[in-house]
Amino acid sequence: MPLYKRGTVWWVDVVTPSGERIRQSAGTEIKAHAQEFHDKLKSELWRLSKLGEKPRRTWNDAVVRWLKEQSHKATIETDKIHLRWLDGHLAGVLLDTISRSTIDLITDAKLAEGVSNATVNRILEVLRAILRRAVNQWDWLDRAPQIRMLKEPTRRIRFLPREEAQRLLAELPPHLADMAAFSLATGLRRANVTGLLWSQVDLKRRAAWIHPDQAKARRAIAVPLNQEAMSIIQKQTGKHPQRVFTYHGSPILQVSTKAWYSALERAGIENFRWHDLRHTWASWHVQNGTPLFALQEMGGWESSEMVRRYAHLTAGHLAPYADRLESLIAQVEL
């Protein structure tokens, strides 16, 4: 029987050309609509089997598979935010109908919200990754449209001189000051500091570690604890059985709070985010001669390119080459 009911919803019963039996909900309570769904499904199965055509998939199908396969990503929650926004433009759209003009409309719609080119690019990157996977891995598409990223201005690395950092720490409430100082001592990202457990700390070995599933690059990070970091950790002893950093006995989930921004204002520091504490840590290391390869390992960066952003902050290794001109300049002056 090609059509039958389960409760009030019609279902279809289809046998494929290969003999496989498919029972699937038509998602409707109207028999005529269910019959239309049945006929379309049967036709597509025949064309797939006899003509070798690929089944036409929707954007929603792709999103579901993407989220399932990428659930391990450190940035999956950010991807979900972008995908929710894209749903307003691509829900129910067939993948093979997404064209260059479709992407241009999406770009224009996001820009109309007054966001930066960088914000638009983060959304386009997710869209591009899904379409590429539909071509290269899922075999759902023969080709995908080219997605051109918008030009982003090159940003300077924002870091604090030591006197400004001390001024900020003095203005922060104790629980935020401890975490900020620990970030400056270790370079750990916000989530790794707020989520640090006592089981990840070894005071005897003066070390801590970040597990692969906690790291952005999904690789374990060994964290050597200098004297400043040790002092901060020891101050937290006995406050909580599991978490290192807490506020009145409760885990800390957010650090960019009103107290953070008020402290920045009192300290006279502008255009500074919590993540810039990590940039400050890296900048101080480079300025004091830490090799880039060592900084990459300590910071848990996946590629050397991420670390080379700080290379311009030190010129000590170039000094001998600069000195070679001294004798030549002296001769010219004579």
Feature tags:
hpI Integrase, Chain A; 9% strand; 3-stranded antiparallel β-sheet; elongated; mainly alpha
Q: What does it look like?
A:
The chain is mostly helical and 334 residues long. The chain has three domains: 3-50, no CATH class; 59-136; 162-317, Intergrase catalytic core (hpI Integrase, Chain A), CATH 1.10.443.10. Helix content is 49%, strand content 9%. It is built from 15 helices and eight strands. The chain has a three-stranded antiparallel beta sheet with strand order 1-2-3, with helices on one face. The radius of gyration is 28 Å and the shape is elongated. The mean pLDDT is 88. Residues 155-323 form the Tyr recombinase domain. Keywords: DNA integration, DNA recombination, DNA-binding.
| Helix percentage range | 40-55%
Low-confidence stretches: none
Q: Say which CATH homologous superfamily of the largest domain is assigned.
A: Intergrase catalytic core
Strand ordering within the main sheet: 1-2-3
Question: Which CATH top level class of the largest domain fits?
Answer: Mainly Alpha
The computed structural class is mainly alpha
Q: What is the count of β-strands?
A: 8
Q: What is the H/E order?
A: EEEHHHHHHHHEEEHEEHHHHHH
Count of domain modules: 3
InterPro entries: CB, DNA_brk_join_enz, Integrase-like_cat_sf, Integrase_catalytic, Integrase_recombinase_N, Tyrosine_recombinase_XerCD
Keywords: DNA integration, DNA recombination, DNA-binding
Domain Core-binding (CB): 57-135
GO molecular function, one term: DNA binding
